[in-house]
Structure formats: C-alpha cells, structure tokens
Amino acid sequence: MGDRNAEGANSMSDSSDAPWYADGVKFRCTQCGNCCTGSPGAVWVTDEEIERIAEVLGKPAGEVRLFHTRPLRMKLSLREFANGDCTFFDAKTRRCTVYDARPAQCRTWPMWKSNLADRSAWEETARGCPGIGQGDFVPLEQIEQQLAESPL
Ligand code: SF4
Ligand code: SF4
Predict the structure, then answer these.
(1) Cα(100)–Cα(122) distance, integer angstroms
(2) Pick from 1, 61, 114, 130: CA 20 to 30 A from residue 22's CA?
(3) If you measure from the C-alpha of residue 32 to the centroid of ligand 1, how many angstroms do you get, rounded to a whole number?
(4) Ligand 2 pocket at CB < 6 A
(5) pTM above 0.90, yes or no
C-alpha cells in the first residue's frame, strides 16, 4: 500500500477493463473553498434539492429559488455573487451554509466523469483542488457511487 502513488496506480490499473482509478484515488477535502468560489460556473440544482436546501434554511422553497438560483441552459444553476462565490458560501468561515443539503454536483466533487476521464484530467483537477492526493484512498466502489450520483 505504501508505495502507491497519489493516483492509485498499480497492477489493477493495467487491466484492460479496469479504469485507471481502479485502486482508488487519494482525496480528503482541505476545506480551502476553491470549488465554491472563483470563476463563475454552473452548479446544477434540481427542484428536490431546492426543497431540501429550503428545509435546512427554514425558508420557503420559492425564496431559495428566487435568491439563490438562476436559469441556465433550460435548467437551474446556483447563483453566484459578482466575485464568483456561491451565494451559499460563507467567506468568513469558508464553509458551505447548506452543507447537509448541498446539491449532488457539490457532494460528488471531485469524483466527476470529466475529472476522472483519465489520469491527466485528474492531475489537472488537482491543480485547483488541494484535497486531491491527501488522506486515505477513496475506494473504487465509492468513486463509482459518486460518479453515478454526479450530474457531470
Ligand atoms: S477545492 Fe477541493 S480541497 Fe478545496 S474545498 Fe473544494 S473539495 Fe475541498
Ligand atoms: S452549495 Fe455549498 S458546496 Fe455547493 S458551491 Fe455552494 S457553497 Fe459550495
């Protein structure tokens, strides 16, 4: 175990059927906040997720929809402040204020198909996510579960 590199490469990864991350990838969030801030982008949110966020905030779902989402490409995305921060991001604590109800896109980061497409995509993702390469290996089963839940 000790000589595996951060991407989890070893013999299993050489099997033609196995994905390159078959032995897991190292990831533990450092809570830097990078993925909730910075350049604007889409964070897809469903009606069910809006309901759940509203429950956690103790606010009507319509209010959450009005103040925290925006229509984008026929879907809904979370709204951002002018500086690109998600409106649910607390800049002081650098925490998500709706953490328990955050959308699937947030819950599954960085285990997205695009990030795990190949080793170089993962390495590129690691440039903006210092949690990649930290902590224990996330096992394949968990990666696949998150891939299945992720909208991306
Ligand atoms: S960028 Fe990575 S390490 Fe930073 S908060 Fe997001 S998931 Fe955690
Ligand atoms: S909902 Fe929370 S986890 Fe998702 S982008 Fe906003 S602050 Fe980050």
Answers:
(1) 26
(2) 130
(3) 5
(4) 36, 43, 78, 86, 88-89, 96, 98, 102, 106
(5) no
**Domain ranges across the chain:** 21-149
Which tens digits make up the pLDDT trace of 59-91? 999 999 999 999 999 999 999 999 999 999 999
Q: Give the chain's length.
A: 152
Q: 128: left (phi > 0), else alpha (psi -120 to 50), else beta?
A: alpha
pLDDT at 15: 54
The residues pairing with 69 across neighbouring beta strands, listed in sequence order, are 78
134 neighbors 26 (Cβ within 8 angstroms): yes
The 8-class DSSP code of residue 139 comes to P
Q: Closest Cα to residue 53, out of 62, 63, 42, 64?
A: 64
Atom of ligand 2 nearest to the CA of 88: 7
- Nearest-ligand number for the alpha carbon of 107: 2
